[in-house]
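Hi support team,

I submitted a single chain yesterday and got back a structure, but I'm not sure I'm reading the token output correctly. Could someone confirm the output below corresponds to the sequence I sent? I've pasted both exactly as they appear in my results page.

Thanks,
R.
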Amino acid sequence: MRTRGLELAIGAACALACAGCPSLAQHQTPETVAPGKWQLAASAGGALFRDVPQETSTPAGSAELALRRGIARDLDAQVAAYLWGLDIGVKYRFLDGPWSAAIAPRLGGSRFVGTPSTVDSLYVWGHLPMIFGRRLNKTLGVGFGPRMLYGYYLPATGGSAHGLSFGGFAYFEARISDRFRLVPEVSVLAAPKGTVPVRGWSAYFGPGLLVDL
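Hi R., thanks for writing in. Yes, this is the structure output for that exact sequence:
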């Protein structure tokens, strides 16, 4: 019973700290940035974390600012900043045609400063999404893909927790000028193992903006 109580306490702390978690969104197409070129990506949306055992739902805001640079024809790299931390990642496009496909692993961490209702904590994560996309015409495109998220949560009060989540995302791409593209996205993740970011499921929806510099 004591172990069960500790798991629930950590799960509750994780849920309350979700505002400090990274964005659940991708806001990427399978297209890579041209070698030597830069791309700026920005997004802001809403997330919901549902803890099934405790029957609680925690809404949270999500914001991200990323800078990407093309390394090779089918490879680029990025660094992304959040309210509480940052991550780094690469994207490798392994299929280029009517349908394009890429894999975009990311690693990062965030520090959540304690408040009267939450605790000082460290959250480390790893994303592994696969992105499939198809361009409908010169201005419109669609895409989707599966994704995996691993998180490790370390509160200053002691103990730790981790979790492995699986899910998917879908996006719609609209080019509004030669340099600007809107990429709204919806994402859903379920956590069959662990309590990070929550023992249950999480969802995200929000707009994204890609700027080719």
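A quick pointer for reading it: The first helix runs from residue 2 to 16. Let us know if anything else looks off.

Best,
Support desk
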